Amino acid sequence: MMHSLRARLWLSFALLVGGVLCIIAGGLVVYAARNPTPARLLTLRLDIYAIFLSQAERLPPAKNIDRLLAAAQRVDQALNVRLTVLSPDGNSIADTRPEQGSVPLPPAAYLSNPTRATLDYRDSSGKFWIYSARYLPDGNVLVVSSPRLRLTLAQFIQEEAFLAPLAQAGVFALIVALLLAIWLSGWITKPLRNLAASVRAMSNGKFSPLSIQGPSEVQEVSQAFNEMAQRVQASQQSQRDFIANVSHDLKTPLTSIQGFSQAILDGTASRPEDLQKAAQIIHSEAERMNRMVLDLLEIARLDAKIVEFERKPIDLAILVDQIAGQFTPQARQKDITMQTDLPMTAMVTGDRDRLAQVFSNLVDNALKYSPNGSAVRLNLLVKNNYVEVQVCDSGPGIPTDDLEKIFDRFYQVDKSRAVNTPQGNRRGVGLGLAIAREIVQAHGGVISVYNQTAPHGAGDSASQGSVFVVKLPVAPPAISMTGKIRK
Ligand code: ADP
């Protein structure tokens, strides 16, 4: 019954209203228990009697003690107040109720200037009395006292009749609380209901972004949902693209293998040179497929985080120098100058073979895309807490729109762009940079790319080649000193 937000809100408000009313009622009861109003009224009454009786002609002087007592007793019977006459030093001269204990002499300050402050005392049985006092003309002190009135709670409630207005206020507050709960729950639950509807729509493959409304917490949830939905969509899209790319990239070499093997089988390619050409194509397409399958397996293993990276101290200066050496024959074939600018040492921690794979891929691309007779430069800079490797080529650069996507799987600037390599026309599959990024990220580093442009004033704003930058954290000394640590 209390499952809905509206019911819970209403219950909270009702409890709040009930609680507040109870506190108010409690306060009133405590106030009532002190009986301030009856006490004030009694003091006023006693004041009036005291003023009235202390006038010269009302009570006989103290020297006629019997007459004084008789007059006082008459007053006591008529007004139901205890009358006591005290000598200036506090001795009782006449008392209408001596059995009820002695009456204290009021403070001199009060007598010379009577104020409205309540004076009280306790009699012999412990009962409270309120009194008022005045000087009589003969110098004695007249004390008029009466037991302090105490109303019971029931009397007070009956007397003051505050329960009915409290109950009315309670009912009114509950109605207001109910209306407020209805409005508030609508305000809060509407965006939540929209959210639930969107989640349901999304599970059916449809999604429209939620409008951000309602209380800030609900807005936050909507915002988080929109972001999550966008990521889910992007991931679904990338999965679709991935499958489309894989099937396309496998289909192309398969078609060509099928075509040329068919030509061999049906005798279309019967001359030795035709057979040689068909076999060559079948071989290179099979090799390409093999490469692609290996790359895909590698990506899948990196994705699943089941690749084990060594964590060993590596001197990048040595590693980059070795890679430059390995690619020198390839560079020579295109008459490309390989320049290196390396420091004495640049220590990082990581997996040597994997990092070598990253730099080999970058240098291979740089050589592939740089024209004959140009230059490829490898720079290594040691910064405060990272080491930066730059692979600069003299190729066509990367179109600005593609700079962001260049590290995506299967991304190729121009799929039909044939690249002349020493091995002949060898098309890539667009997985090399994606793998490189995974490896660099697994080492806690980042990989990026930018285009070099001609210096200002050179009159040529065209790209002067691209620069691939790999930043890796500098090895902490403790790790660089240790031996092989496996993650
Ligand atoms: P592959 O070279 O096998 O196609 P990569 O992931 O290594 O795959 O590269 C992806 C794409 O990025 C390439 O197809 C090419 O279009 C572009 N590219 C990579 N390196 C360079 C470079 N140095 N200069 C120009 N374009 C490049």
What do these coordinates show?
This protein is rod-shaped. A 5-stranded antiparallel sheet has the order 2-1-5-4-3. It has a 5-stranded mixed sheet with strand order 7-9-10-14-13. Strand 1 and strand 2 (92-95) form a beta hairpin. The protein folds into 4 domains: 37-150, PAS domain (Beta-Lactamase, 2-Layer Sandwich); 165-203; 216-283, no CATH class; 310-486, Histidine kinase-like ATPase, C-terminal domain (Heat Shock Protein 90, 2-Layer Sandwich). The protein is built from 13 helices and 15 strands. By secondary structure, it is α+β, with helices and mostly antiparallel strands. 22% of the residues are buried. It has helices spanning 5-33, 36-53, 65-79, 108-112, 153-160, 163-203, 216-265, 272-303, 316-326, 328-333, 352-369, 432-442, 477-481; strands at 82-86, 92-95, 119-122, 128-135, 141-147, 310-315, 337-341, 347-350, 375-382, 386-392, 420-421, 424-425, 446-453, 463-473, 485-486. Mean pLDDT is 84; it is low at 417-426 and 478-487. Helix 1 packs antiparallel against helix 6 (163-203), helix 8 runs parallel beside helix 12 and helix 11 runs antiparallel to helix 12. The structure holds adenosine-5'-diphosphate.
